[in-house]
Amino acid sequence: MEAKTIKQYVAVKKGGPFQMVTGPYPTPRPGEVCIRNRAVGLNPLDWKNLYHGEMVKSWPEVFGIDTAGIVEAVGVDVTAFQPGDAVMSLAGHGGCAGAFQEVTTVPEHFVCKKPVAWTFEEASSVPVLVVGGSSGVGASAVQLLRQALPLATILTTNSPKHNDHIVKLGATTCIDRHDPNMVTTAKSASPAGGGVDAIIDAVGGAADNARLFDALRPDGPRVYSQVFTGDKIAIPDGVSSVAVFGRMMFQLPGGMLTMSKLVELVDNGKFKLPLQISIGGKDLRRLARVWRSLRPG
């Protein structure tokens, strides 16, 4: 009998091009889940990996960090999911292929059941627990920060057209990202005008505007958290800095419950879809055509 195969849309080399190839049908190992992808989110980190190779061990590579679909098979010790479950998941872990293919294999703790109210396209767009800005990760961060710190002053930088949406998600004040006096505006909006305790940078903004660090309160903890973007940022003396990415959450106490807790927030109306969804196509080959839309990301 002929062996089962799947289609994979691979980046042949750094910078592309993409090519459709045939790969082996996966078999999940213990602790793994195989998902037949129904929708794949285009994440800015994907194009940064394509053009800069920050997290690529070898070429060709299958990209795709965010996915949603139907469970096709599970490892022998997996009990939380079964074939037929509608789920959403992170993908592309530990050198394994991402979601730009028909069936993707991921660790069980990357997966959660898709909220009933969300479409597959909406479920694949959620960047989980990555904070900063008014991008998809930023809009998610605003909501999670408001849940964790109900009385906090949460400032965001974004285009004015997004102000109403970001405020509804929990931001205290939105600042025009093109404001030449951004730092002064941010300090004025902070309690007593003294500055902020921490900067959470999801878009590598400090790479282009080093003055962002001046928004930190001189007598405060002066914490800067950069969500991994591949940008090289010079950190001033006296600033405590850490580069983070979403999967680090799984290493924290209770972190293995991250995905399931997100679904609880959605089901309880405490987490809203961060961005409007734009469907780029219904075929893997469409990925290359819409890829350029990520580059400003």
TrEMBL record:
Residues 15-297 form the Enoyl reductase (ER) domain. GO terms for molecular function: oxidoreductase activity, acting on NAD(P)H. The keyword Transmembrane helix does not apply. It comes from the Eukaryota. Keywords: Oxidoreductase. The keyword NAD does not apply. InterPro entries: ADH-like_C, ADH-like_N, ER, GroES-like_sf, NAD(P)-bd_dom_sf, Trans-enoyl_RdTase-like. It holds the Pfam family ADH_zinc_N. Belongs to the zinc-containing alcohol dehydrogenase family. This is Alcohol dehydrogenase, putative. It comes from Metarhizium acridum (strain CQMa 102).
